[in-house]
């Protein structure tokens, strides 16, 4: 299974194997990683799954996948940066094995 590395705002690092096809938000939730809330369950209706994609991965992951994600990124609690994504919109694939995401200071 592809590995995803979640870095908390305080620097705490959690490495998880996430099933292919699952999304990065669910990977955190199912494993009790704090820092990603995912309140709407991935319906692009909350922005509480906001993360910053590690610079080494931005090209591979790409930018927001839809206008709806772009619109919802206007509702994040933390500052939006060029590498901001909503993690419910990032499917885990073998190509993303080793992906590093940085969690913002707050999701509310
Ligand atoms: S979980 Fe609500 S927008 Fe991602």
Notes on the structure:
This protein is an alpha+beta fold and 108 residues long. 16% of the residues lie in helices and 19% in strands. It is built from 3 helices and 5 strands. Strands 2-1-5-3-4 form a 5-stranded mixed beta sheet, with helices on one face. The mean pLDDT is 98. The structure holds FE2/S2 (inorganic) cluster. FE2/S2 (inorganic) cluster binds at residues 25, 38-40, 42, 44-49, 72, 86, 88.
Q: Mind sketching the topology for me?
A:
Layout: E1 3-7, E2 13-17, H1 24-30, E3 50-53, H2 58-61, H3 67-72, E4 84-86, E5 99-102
The structure holds FE2/S2 (inorganic) cluster.
Low-confidence stretches: none
Instruction: Give average pLDDT, whole number.
Output: 98
Shape: globular
Please name the CATH topology: Ubiquitin-like (UB roll)
């Amino acid at each position: 299974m592809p590995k995803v590395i979640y870095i908390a705002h305080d620097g705490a690092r959690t490495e998880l194997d996430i099933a292919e096809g699952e999304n990065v938000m669910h990977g955190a939730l199912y494993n009790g990683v704090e820092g990603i809330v995912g309140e709407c369950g991935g319906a692009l209706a909350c922005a509480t799954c906001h993360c910053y994609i590690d610079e080494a991965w931005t090209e591979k992951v790409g930018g927001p996948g839809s206008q709806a994600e772009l619109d919802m990124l206007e509702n994040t609690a933390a500052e939006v940066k060029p590498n901001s994504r909503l993690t419910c919109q990032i499917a885990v694939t073998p190509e993303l094995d080793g992906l590093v995401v940085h969690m913002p200071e707050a999701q509310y």
